[in-house]
Automatic annotation (TrEMBL):
<dbReference type="GO" id="GO:0016491">
    <property type="term" value="F:oxidoreductase activity"/>
</dbReference>
<feature type="domain" description="3-dehydroquinate synthase C-terminal">
    <location>
        <begin position="250"/>
        <end position="431"/>
    </location>
</feature>
<dbReference type="InterPro" id="IPR030960">
    <property type="entry name" value="DHQS/DOIS_N"/>
</dbReference>
<feature type="domain" description="3-dehydroquinate synthase N-terminal">
    <location>
        <begin position="81"/>
        <end position="234"/>
    </location>
</feature>
<dbReference type="GO" id="GO:0003856">
    <property type="term" value="F:3-dehydroquinate synthase activity"/>
</dbReference>
<dbReference type="Pfam" id="PF01959">
    <property type="entry name" value="DHQS"/>
</dbReference>
<dbReference type="InterPro" id="IPR002812">
    <property type="entry name" value="DHQS"/>
</dbReference>
<protein>
    <submittedName>
        <fullName>Uncharacterized protein isoform X1</fullName>
    </submittedName>
</protein>
<dbReference type="GO" id="GO:0008652">
    <property type="term" value="P:amino acid biosynthetic process"/>
</dbReference>
<dbReference type="Pfam" id="PF26558">
    <property type="entry name" value="DHQS_2nd"/>
</dbReference>
<keyword id="KW-0028">Amino-acid biosynthesis</keyword>
<keyword id="KW-0057">Aromatic amino acid biosynthesis</keyword>
<dbReference type="GO" id="GO:0009073">
    <property type="term" value="P:aromatic amino acid family biosynthetic process"/>
</dbReference>
<dbReference type="InterPro" id="IPR056179">
    <property type="entry name" value="DHQS_C"/>
</dbReference>
Length: 431
């Protein structure tokens, strides 16, 4: 989407890119920047100040438009429109936030000099709290501001006749339930609601309340580490919006190998047919191991479980990383993937390690010469996900007890080398 902001005598065109990712908009005015590069210092400051004021207005417009569109969007696209503003007086926090694309800063009305100083060294959008309003540098109202300590105050806030399009709330002593109450209260109101958060974990509560969460957060911190943690959280969410490119693989060998310690991963989320975890013995290729969500004659379905493989195997986790199955424990996150490559994060609720008979499965991708392998428990409830319409015993998954040479399964082909779970470029031999 693009916004045009009128500023006599010419138009200033600011673009707000909505990419379907958890992030804030960044505004660039190349005309102003180019002109400033050939002007005097005074002229540069004047143009820069104009740029900041215009960008603040465009930010408000962007939030308004994005809020309206998100009401009819699905959950993932709603998450793709979250806003992050920063409230701090720490210069290191400011620079860390700007470097990661978060440019809107809130200041108390007494800190205008600090805002001016920071504006001279970075492209930021300064906003100021004045009573029950959030103002830009020209004292134009951008948002309403309210402390909330009771349901009565929330009802009073909703009843304001002149309530701004953007609302910043400060939940003083109550968090999870009130966050849900605010999401419910403003759902369908066409307003953008942000909550002040003092930690990244508190911000996560606000962003996920009632699945859709609030429209954004104001992170009030004095430690740059909090910026990094929240950005890492956003990156993990962004990754979940990215579809993995899964490769069709052909089974080359199926062989019983004896006993080993295998890992069952029980998640805090239910999985659907076609979903599972990416697991493998080698870094270069992970197999999509199906969950136990399918009905069986042998045991009741357990749609929260993946019988994933032995303790040594890699498993995909957020951040484009891997972990050993033996390292998983309650509270850690893994990536759940379906047949189409759609992925989401899930929290591990429990890990069970038991000695069971294992079967070795080796396969090659259609465009790869290297063999990938995985060891799995030899049981009817353990299966590999197959391509839709692929060669095998079913459209969704093939039990390892029925797997044979020539069957088609799904692989995630990756780099050959990893260090502490991070993909690196290095010569390595795995066999």
């Amino acid at each position: 989407m693009a916004f045009q902001y009128r500023s006599s005598p010419s138009y200033l065109q600011l673009q707000a890119g909505v990419t379907g990712k958890w992030d804030c908009c960044r505004f660039v005015n190349r005309g102003l920047r180019n002109a400033a590069s050939s002007s005097t210092t005074a002229s540069k400051k004047k143009r820069a100040g104009l740029f900041f004021r215009n960008r603040c207005s465009a930010t408000a417009m962007s939030a308004s438009v994005r809020s309206n569109s998100s009401r009819s969007a699905d959950l993932s696209s709603t998450w793709g429109k979250k806003l992050v503003w920063i409230w701090t007086e720490n210069k290191q926090v400011m620079t860390t936030a700007v470097e990661r694309g978060w440019n809107t800063f809130i200041f108390p009305s007494t800190c205008r000099d600090l805002a001016t100083e920071w504006s001279s060294i970075a492209f930021i959008c300064p906003l100021f709290i004045e009573g029950e309003e959030v103002l830009d540098s020209e004292s134009k109202r951008i948002a309403a501001f309210s402390d909330i300590t009771s349901p009565q105050q929330l009802e009073k806030l909703q009843s304001w006749d002149d309530l701004a399009q953007i609302v910043v709330v400060n939940l003083l002593d109550w968090q999870v339930i009130p966050a849900e109450n605010i999401v419910a209260a403003f759902q369908g109101s066409q307003r953008t609601v942000l909550a002040i958060s003092k930690t990244p974990s508190e911000a996560q509560v606000f962003l996920e309340a009632l699945e859709h969460g609030l429209d954004g957060v104001v992170l009030k911190v004095d430690d740059a580490k909090a910026i990094l943690e929240l950005k890492d959280y956003f990156n993990r969410r962004n990754e979940a919006d990215t579809r993995l490119n899964l490769t069709k693989g052909t089974v080359m060998n199926v062989q019983m190998v004896g006993m080993g310690d295998r890992v069952c991963v029980d998640l805090c989320s239910l999985m659907r047919p076609g979903e599972g975890l990416l697991v493998g013995s080698f870094a270069r290729g992970l197999f999509l191991v199906h969950s136990e969500c399918l009905e069986s004659n042998y045991i009741s379905s357990r749609p929260f479980r993946v019988n994933a493989g032995p303790v040594h195997a890699y498993v995909a986790i957020p951040g484009s990383k891997t972990s050993y199955l033996s390292e998983l424990k309650t509270g850690k996150e893994v990536i759940v993937v379906d047949q189409s490559g759609v992925q989401r994060t899930a929290i591990v609720g429990r890990v069970k390690i038991e000695s069971r008979p294992l079967v070795l499965v080796e396969a090659k991708g259609d465009s790869e010469n290297k063999t990938c392998s995985i060891l799995l428990q030899n049981a009817e409830t353990v299966a590999l996900v197959s391509p839709v319409g692929g060669e095998g015993c079913g459209e969704t998954a093939i039990p390892v007890t029925s797997l044979k040479v020539g069957d088609e399964i799904l692989l995630s082909v990756q780099g050959d080398a990893r260090h502490t779970g991070i993909e690196i470029e290095e010569f390595v031999v795995e066999k």
